[in-house]
Amino acid sequence: MLTRKIKCGPVVFPVKNVSDEDKMSMFIKEDLPMGSLEEAIEGLKKFLSDKDDVAVAQIEKLITGLKKTDLNECDPVKRILEGFEHFKINKFDKYPELYKKLAEGQWPKFLVFACSDSRVCPSHILDFQPGEAFMVRNIANMVPAFDKLKYSGVGAAIEYAVSVLEVQNILVIGHSRCGGIKRLMTHPEDNSTPFDFIDEWVKIGLPAKVKVQAEFGDLPLEDQCKHCEKESVKLSLRNLETYPYVQMGLANKKLRLMGGYYDFVHGKFELLEFEPHFHHLFST
Amino acid sequence: MATLLPSSFTKNFNSSIDYPITSFQTFAIFGPKLKTEQTHFRLSTSFNVRTGSPLELKAMKEPPGLTQKLDKNRLDRLAESENGCDLFEDLKHRFLRFKKHKFEENLGHFQNLAEGQAPKFMIIACADSRVCPSVILGFQPGEAFMVRNVANLVPPFESGPSETNAALEFAVNSLKVENILVIGHSRCGGIRALMSMQDEVDSSSFIRSWVIVGKNARLNTKSAASHLGFDQQCRHCEKESVDHSLVNLLTYPWIEQKVAKGELSVHGGYYDFVDCTFEKWTLDYKGSNFGKNSRLPVKNRFYWC
């Protein structure tokens, strides 16, 4: 009796009485990439043509079991532990010199503003490694204009990144299908119930909305939102210029401002550089 | 609707791999070509892609931006460089790597995600470049709605609208996340600034205006840990501040309601990047017994090292 273990995604099943060992071993090989549940099921289905009724019954049982796996079940503790273990083994322990240096301080070259959206983390799409980017994430990746009384959170991040960490680049990244921008573009015209905090925040982008509606008001909402996602990035870059330490950095040519747009529908990224509006406001 | 892939899927998402450049495509670039009166955006120049050089993880060489502290000469060259081709090139290649090795290899998953996100987590973490939760906890696209600010602070409900509570409102009421995790970390500059503050608030500093959100954590630390050295006090405050953020989360009525019903769990975490350890604990909500002045009731405390 041959006992083998099939690794299908996260699940391991014992399989007995396998008659066609070669076929199964191709599927069972240890370096099988961990694919989706659907891929695992498709892979198993290939063996259903096997003449061995016992094997067929076992495989069908496996497929039924896999189909019952509730993908939406998520043990948060397990998820966090697995993620941390993976990081520790594959990154921290592998590059001790790097992490030892990082423990002493950070010298990021970038200050990045990105949306809180779960799909657009710059560590993924632009592969920022630990130490590279001081990263602010908020709804619709907005940077409000300098205001001593309001928005101290954003102000603190800019002040820290530019004055203390002396980053050389500020990158604001917008993205497709942004919920925050959609809210900006639709409310309050759609008469929906206000969100106390969201609506107050996204109205930072009102100048972008006004511009887009003036230029592209005849387009469908989806297209207007796309234009606004990009216009809002430009607005945020202009707002960055209202911060004194940013002005100084631009004037001294020690700071560069950039805008980005990640389109996760088509898998594209656009990048542009912002020319400073102010020239020689300060000289050293 | 996006579905969460089994956790083993994360094993493919290892960015610390050498990827030889085999193909590239030109970026689409938006924006006017030259400065105009209204806008001041210009195109990057067309990319001259370097061929052949393997994309090694920068950590294999000198750590990026660390031992490469820019001396004056390099700063001058950066200033003189008309369009920073190297920087754009680098960003371009990073995105193309992501596109080739993650986006295109998991196209079905990303197509699902494009239709909508359904993250199980909302994370509040520090903006510090060393503590991105996507890296240290391996969150993949679609898994975690993320807020990052200085010192991972959560202001209370009564402080009024802010970027942090706008994100909370969206995550809890629209996305209906099931978990909120506030992650503090070692050697936090924001907490250090909080602990260093003199009693008079310097109103010209944004940093001070912001970190004052954590003033209760500072008070508790001063009373509990004043016998310790300053570094140890800061460390104490880093953890105390996470607890106070959890307390502040419960000041939001719609958060407390969901926690009381068991629809939402609130967790604290602490990442120590000196020793590479991670602590995690969960708020043990006990209804009317829960109050600001009582010691934070927690359960399921884990320490991973």
UniProtKB/TrEMBL annotation, chain A:
Q: Which residues bind Zn(2+)?
A: C115, D117, H175, C178
- What residue range is the signal peptide? none
Q: Name one GO biological process term.
A: carbon utilization
What keywords appear on the UniProt entry? Lyase, Metal-binding, S-nitrosylation, Zinc
Q: Which reaction does it catalyse?
A: hydrogencarbonate + H(+) = CO2 + H2O
Entry-linked SUPFAM superfamilies? beta-carbonic anhydrase, cab
Q: Which PROSITE patterns match?
A: PROK_CO2_ANHYDRASE_1, PROK_CO2_ANHYDRASE_2
Q: What's its EC?
A: 4.2.1.1
Main EC class the enzyme belongs to? lyase
For this entry, the protein name equals Carbonic anhydrase
Kindly list the organism's lineage: Eukaryota, Viridiplantae, Streptophyta, Embryophyta, Tracheophyta
UniProtKB/TrEMBL annotation, chain B:
Instruction: Tell me what organism the protein belongs to.
Output: Castanea mollissima
KW Acyltransferase (keyword) present: no
Q: Which cofactor does it need?
A: Zn(2+)
Q: Which UniProt keywords apply?
A: Lyase, Metal-binding, S-nitrosylation, Zinc
Taxonomic superkingdom:
Eukaryota
Q: What family does the Swiss-Prot or TrEMBL record give for this protein?
A: Belongs to the beta-class carbonic anhydrase family.
Q: Tell me the protein's name.
A: Carbonic anhydrase
Describe cofactor binding as the record notes it: Binds 1 zinc ion per subunit.
